[in-house]
Amino acid sequence: MMTQKPLARTLSALGRKPHWLWYAPVACLAFQNIAQAQENASPAQSRSAIEEVVVTGTPGGAAMRKLDASFAISTVSAEDIKRKAPSSTADLLKTVPGVWVESSGGVSGANIFVRGFPSGGDADFVTVALNGMPVFPPPTLSFLENSTLFRIDETIERMEALRGGPNPVYSNGQVGLTTNFILKEGGPDTEGTLKYSTSDFGLQRVDGMVSGELDDDLYYMIGGYVSSSPGIREAGFDAEEGNQFTLNLTKLLDNGKINLYHRATDDHGTWYLPVAIQDGEGNATGLDAAYTQVGPGNRNVLVPYSGSDGAGGSEITMEMEDMGEGRGWDGSITGGAVELDLDNGWSFTDRFSLTKGDADTLGFVPDGAAVTLGSLNGGTDGETITGEAVSSNTLVQRFGAWVVRKDIQAFSNDVSLAKQWDSAKVTLGYYTSTWEVSETWSIGNSKYYELEQDGLMISPDSVDDTCQDFSQSTCGFKYDVDAIGEAQEDAFYLAGETYVGDLTLDAGVRVVTRETQYSVDDGARDGIPDLIVDTEEDAVSYTAAANWSLNSNSGVFFRINDGVKFPDFDAYRDFRADFNNGSDLIIDVEQYELGYKLSQDNYSLYATGFFNDTKGQPFGNVALNDFSRLRTEAMGVELDGSLYFGDFELSLNATIQDTEIKSGDDAGNAVQRQPDQQFRLSPSYNLQFANNVEAVVYGTVSLIGDRYSDNGNINKLQSYEKFDLGVIVNVDELEFQVAIDNLTDELALTEGDPRAAGVSANGRYILPRNIKFSIGYDF
Fold it and tell me: I need a labelling partner for 448 at 20 to 30 A (CA). Which of 6, 102, 188, 631 fits?
C-alpha cells in the first residue's frame, strides 16, 4: 500500500470535507473588498498596523515588523485587553485565531486547545511567557497549565501570540501556541493609572501602575492589584481573592539595555466543575450556570491520605481541607535580560527567569449522575451529617473532595549571539532550563451531598452504601500520589536568514537533550505499584520558510516545521506500562503553513492555512485505566483582520478547521472538545462630545460551532452564540467603563464530564451574564 505524502493527504482530506474551503476565501475576499471600498472615503486611522513590531518567534527576540514575519502571530495591545475585560488570562486567548479556550472553570485551570492538536484538557500545547521567557517550561502538568501562573493587570504593555511557525526551534520548543506578555517600561516622564472596579457579583478590586525615571537612562515601572469577590458563580463567601505586585527596571546603555523584573502573585478562586444537567432517569435538574457546589457550610472537609513509606503505604490519615481554596497560584517570577549591539553587525542577548511557588487545586468533583435520596435508602427520608432532615425526593449526587498540592520551581536561561550582514543574518543560541515539582494528591473519595449550592454531606445512616461511611476510604475511584520530580533541558539552536530581492528565506534547527528523574509513591488504595524514572531523551527539531514581499504592504509565506513534545512527569506516571516496555513517549508534530498578509493605513488582513500531523499523543481515562497513543491530522485556516473607517472599527477573528483521528478505535472521528468553526466579530464606534468628553461603544459577537466532549464523538456539545457589550467614557483624566459579558445570558456547554465515558448527565456551562464597572484616573 502506497503511503501518501503530506500534500496528497491534505488534498484527500479536502475532498472529504470541503466546507471550510468555501467559507475561508469568501470571508477573506469580503473583508478585503469592504476595506478597499472604504480606503478613499475614510481618513487613515491612528491604529494603523503597518509598522506594528513583534519580538516573539525571532532569533534572540530581535524586533521585526509584523508584516515581515513569515509566521502566524497576533498582537493584543493594552487597549485591546481593556476592551475584552477578560475574566482570566485564558479568557484573553479567545482573541487568538486557531485557539479554542474553555475558560469556564474559574480564574485558574483553563482548558486550551490549539489548531486541532489532540488533548484531553489543561493546555498541552500552550506556553505562557513573560518578556520572552516561559513562566514554567512544561506547558502542562496534571491540574496545572501555564495560564494558572499568570494574572493580567495594568502592568502589561501587550500580548503576542505565535502559532506554529518557528516555535519548535526557540525557547522551550513549544510546537503549538506561545503567548508572550510584554511588561510596560518606564520613560522620562512620570505617568500612571489608578483604577477601582466592581461588579454585579460583588467584585472589589483596585489596580495601580506608575512609571518614570529614577536616574539618567534608568527607568522604573511599579504596579499591581488587590482583589476580592464571591465569584461570578457566587459561593456565598469571598471565594476569589488575590493580589499582585510587579517591579520592572530598565537601564538604557549606549549600545543596548539591561532589564530586571520581579512579579509576586497570590491569587486563587473557586474551581468551577461540570454540574448535573440531568438526573439518573433523564430528568432536568434545573441547575444553571450560576450554580457551584461549594459554600460556607460545606467547604471544610476531612480528606483521607495514604501514608508514604516507599513501598505503597497502608496507613490512612484524615486531614481537614478547605474546598473554598479552589485553584490558584501563590508564587513569584523573577527575570531579566541583557541586550547589546556590538561592533561590526554583532549582537548579544541573554534572557533569564526564575519561577517559584505553590499551584494548588481543591474542589468538589462530581462522580456520576444525580439521583433522589429515596432511591438510595429504600424510599425513606434521611438527614445530613449535621442532623438536618432531608426528604426522600431530594436530589443528591456523589462529590469527591479533591486535593492536589503542587510546589514548583523552574529556572530558564536563553543566550544568543547574532551576526548581521547586508544580505544575511545568522544566530547561534543556547537554551537551558531546570524545573522541579513536589506534589501530593488525594482525589476520588466520593460521598453523597445535597445537590444545591452549599449542599451538605448526607449522613452514612441515610444511604445504603458503605462508601458513605465517613471513616471508610477503600471504595470508589481513588488516586493517591506523593511524588517528586526534577528535569533539565539543554538545547542548542542555529538560525539563519538571507534576502534575495523581495524574497526572504529563513531556517532553523534545534538539538535538545532532556533528562528526567521522577519518583512516585502511589499509596495502597489505587493498587498501582510505585514508580521510579531516570531517563534521558534527545531530539532534533527544524523549521524553514520562504517569505515573498508582494509590495511594501503585503506578502505571502510558506513554512514547514517538525518538532516534538517531550513527556512530562504525568506521562511517565500514567503511561508507565508503555514506558517500561521501551517507549520514549515523545510526541512528533509536523506542520505546514501558507499565509497571506495585507496591511494598509485603514485595514489589515492576515490569513494562514495550516496542516499538522501529530503522532503519539498519549490519551486515556485514569479512572478506567484505559490508555492509548493517538495519531491525528488537522487542517484549517485562521483569519485575523481589522477595518478602520471614520469613527468605526471592525475586527475579525476566525478559525475554520477539520480534524480527524487516524488511529485506534476512534479512527475517522473528530478530536474531542474543539469546534470546526469559530467566528468573532468585534465592532466599535468612537464618539466625540463637548468639554473634552470622548467615548467608545464596543462589543463582540462570538459564533461557536458544534464539538464533541469525547473522541468517540458520542456526546455532542451544541453550537452557540455569545454577545458581549461595553462602553468606555473619558472625561479629561478620568475613565469610566462598563463591560457586560454574555449579554443574553446564553446557556451553553464547554464540556461534558471528562471523568465519565460516553454520554454524561453532567456538563460545564460557560460563565453566566455578568457586569463589571470601573473608574480610572490617568496621570
Answer: 102
CB 697 within 8 A of CB 689: no
**Over pLDDT 70: what percentage of the chain?**
88
Q: What is the pairing mode between strands 126-130 and 177-183?
A: parallel
762-765 sheet: strands from edge to edge: 275-276, 762-765, 749-751
| Cell numbers at 240, concatenated | 476569589
Give me the half-sphere count of Cα atoms (radius 13 Å) on the Cβ side of residue 66: 23
CA–CA distance, 217 with 224 (Å, rounded to integer): 24
Residue that has been written with the C-alpha cell 497570590 in this structure: 266
Closest to 724 in 3D by CA, of 707, 695, 691, 700: 700
**Exposed, middle or buried, 523 (CB in 10 Å: 0-12/13-18/19+)?**
buried
630 lies in some domain: yes
What cell was used for 65? 515588523
Q: Are strands 693-704 and 720-731 parallel, antiparallel or unpaired?
A: antiparallel
Candidates 331, 382, 198; CA nearest to 771 is 198
* Mean pLDDT value across residues 257-281: 95
Among 536, 470, 474, 546, CA closest to 506? 546
Q: Which of 17-31, 322-336, 339-353, 642-656 has the lowest mean pLDDT?
A: 17-31
Angle at 564 between CA 657 and CA 137, to 5 degrees: 100
The mean per-residue pLDDT over the stretch 433-450 comes to 93
End-to-end CA distance of the chain: give it in Å, rounded.
Answer: 70
DSSP 29: H
Which run of H or E residues covers position 371? strand 361-372
Q: Which residue has the cell 544575511?
A: 424
Say if 1 falls within a structural domain. Answer: no
Asked if 746 and 704 touch (Cβ cutoff 8 Å), the reply is no
Q: Work out how many domains the chain is built from and give that number.
A: 1
Which residues pair with residue 641 across a beta bridge?
605, 652
Q: Is residue 24 part of a domain?
A: yes
Q: Which amino acid is at 588?
A: D
Q: Which of 207-216, 313-322, 372-381 is predicted least confidently?
A: 313-322
pTM listed for this prediction: 0.92
Q: Residue 119 sits in which domain range? A: 6-778
What 3-state DSSP class applies to 506?
strand
Q: Report if residue 68 sits inside a domain.
A: yes
Residue reference for cell 533539565: 488
What CATH code is carried by the domain that includes residue 171?
2.40.170.20
